[in-house]
Amino acid sequence: MNAATAVATVLLLAVTLYACSGLADFGAGLWDLTAGGRERGRRPRALIDMAVAPVWEVNHVWLIFLLILCWTAFGEAFAPIMTTLFVPLALAAGGIVLRGASFAMRRDAARVRARHLAGWLFGVGSVLTPFCLGAALGGIMTGRVPAGNTAGNELSSWLNATSIAIGLLAVAMGAFVAAVYLIAEARRRGAPDLERYFRVRATAAGCAGLVLGVGTLVALRVDQRQMFDRLVGRSWVLLVLGVLALAATFLLAALGVVRRLRLVAATGVAALVWSWGVAQYPYLLPFTLTIEAGAGAAVTLRWVLVWFGVALLLVAPALVLLYVLDQRGELVEDPVTERPAPVRSAATYQR
User: Do 320 and 314 touch, CB atoms closer than 8 A?
Assistant: First the structure.
């Protein structure tokens, strides 16, 4: 494996980590948006807050890493992607900013109406961003991003059947993974009613994801037959592994088996991401720009790999510690299982 392929593998790894973490973050925002009124949605939203608050900023570090890595190592691909897909990527960035600001404002706002508005914006941003990122990926997969200085069409590159199907699939997969993660979170916090609540939603999102996955393959076959043939020809093992892992996640959740549930769900998502990577190899932009042709200088690639190793040694232990502390419940209070103390009357204190 040469340096360019090694860096491309790191790039795909970053996409995988973001899909397994950031996508679930967005899915939690969808469930927050659809939780219902203030009283009905109070406890589901409290669980979502407790699950998301300690790690949501960390989950999106992978997107920043992904952008910087692509910019540094594969500038020949980064430039046309950013030019052609500027609209969906700008909308996705706007959704991330809107989501982060509204999430913080909702937790600190003094007025109930302001918290309600912030929660609504949080949910909208959580749907907008994965859809736009998925639509942008669809534009790349179908070869609508030309290499070189010539930009592709800024609308048809992502507003097409395949891109829309992949965008909706990203939203559905995020909702499914988030519901699965929240099932495990509800079990850990001793909230069986919320466990049942998110089990129903995981089932709905999983069924929607299955339908959208089939629709995506049909749209891709019509739109870009070469990529479809590579996907079902090269990556069929990974596709089957991903479907089986997600089916196992669904079965385990239905049976109430929570142990390793999140790991199985993440494995399914990772397998689907790698099926795309294997199908597209060796192209950065199908079918006009290869990894070798789009890579930067050899010395740049070597230093990227060196600093990736350094970052792995320094950052990985801190991330593991963060997730371990989060799972132990040592980072935030738990309003889901805690009950307010009874209010005593003045006569009680007088006695």
Answer: no
Q: Which helix (H) or strand (E) holds 43?
A: helix 42-52
> What is the domain extent for residue 253?
3-334
- Contacts of 192-199 with C-beta under 8 Å, sequence gap 24+, read 193/43, 194/43, 194/44, 194/47, 194/336, 195/256, 195/258, 197/44, 198/31, 198/44, 199/253, 199/254
The predicted pLDDT at position 317 comes to: 86
Task: Tell me the C-alpha distance between 131 and 174, whole Å.
Answer: 10
pTM of the model: 0.89
pLDDT at 109 over 60: no
Calpha distance 145→18 (Å, rounded):
22
pLDDT of 336: 56
The three-state secondary structure class of 205 is helix
* 345 lies in some domain: no
Q: Which residue has the tokens 């967005």?
A: 26
Mean pLDDT of 73-87: 94
Give the tokens for residue 250: 């669904």
Residue-by-residue DSSP string for 113-163: HHHHHHHHHHHHHHHHHHHHHHHHHHHHHTT-S-SSS----TTTTTSSHHH
Q: How far apart are CA 90 and CA 50, in angstroms?
A: 29
What total of structural domains would you count in the chain?
1
Phi, psi of 112 (to 5 degrees): -65, -40
**pLDDT digit string (tens) for 299-333?**
999 999 999 999 888 888 888 887 777 767 666 65
Residue at 347 is within a domain = no
- d(Cα 75, Cα 68) in Å, to the nearest integer? 10
Residue 339 resides in a domain: no
Mean per-residue pLDDT, 139-154: 89
Tokens at 2, concatenated? 């040469």
Copy the structure tokens of residue 296.
Answer: 């930067």
Alpha-carbon span 225 to 232, nearest angstrom:
11
Indicate whether 346 pLDDT > 60.
Answer: no
Q: Which residues contact 118 (CB under 8 A, 6 or more apart)?
A: 102, 103, 105, 106, 109
Sheet strands (E) in 265-350: 283-285, 289-290
